[in-house]
Design a protein that fits this description.
The longest helix has 6 residues. The chain has a four-stranded antiparallel sheet, with no helix packed on it. A four-stranded antiparallel sheet has the order 3-10-7-4, with no helix packed on it. A two-stranded antiparallel ribbon has the order 8-9. Helices cover 4% and strands 44% of the residues. The protein is mostly beta strands and 149 residues long. The protein has two domains: 39 residues, no CATH class; 100 residues, no CATH class.
């Protein structure tokens, strides 16, 4: 029995048909149900992105992304440039840090804000020792404008 005789939209190879053989109710007919296989007709167009390093952290960015990084000393509305690009991908091709000596990522500063408060509560049982310490990280919001290699 061939895969095309059961009404499959795409013909399968014999090895693929043997793997799917357990799905069929009988060897002679498959009229009681229909199997549909969705095979992509095209390869999707992947967007270019870069991995940059700032504030001791690494961020995956693409053009138009809005990210929050550790506080930068830049005013709102100004542009900042990140020259430490670790990785760059243009869909099918990619470059690593060795190949990216002159690569830059330009971002526009949207503004500054604070992260949610983090509370650290320490205590020792039966000793009367309680300490509450909290902090809020200061962040800078950025919109990525361009990635150049």
């Amino acid at each position: 029995m061939r895969a095309s005789s059961c009404g499959f939209p795409n013909a399968l190879s014999d090895s693929s048909f043997r793997i799917l053989n357990f799905l069929l109710p009988s060897q002679s007919t498959c009229a009681s149900f229909t199997l549909h296989f969705f095979v992509p007709r095209h390869v999707p167009n992947f967007m270019s992105y870069a991995i940059i390093k700032t504030g001791g952290k690494q961020y995956r960015v693409a053009e138009g992304d809005v990210i929050e990084v550790e506080k930068l000393d830049v005013e709102a509305g100004a542009e900042t440039t990140f020259s430490e690009v670790l990785f760059l991908s243009n869909g099918s091709s990619f470059k690593t840090a060795v190949d990216l000596k002159g690569a830059t990522v330009v971002a526009e500063v949207i503004g500054g804000k604070k992260a949610p408060k983090v509370i650290c509560f320490k205590y020792r049982r039966r000793k009367g020792y309680h300490r509450t310490v909290g902090h809020r990280r200061k962040l800078t919001e950025l919109r990525i404008k361009s990635i150049t290699a």
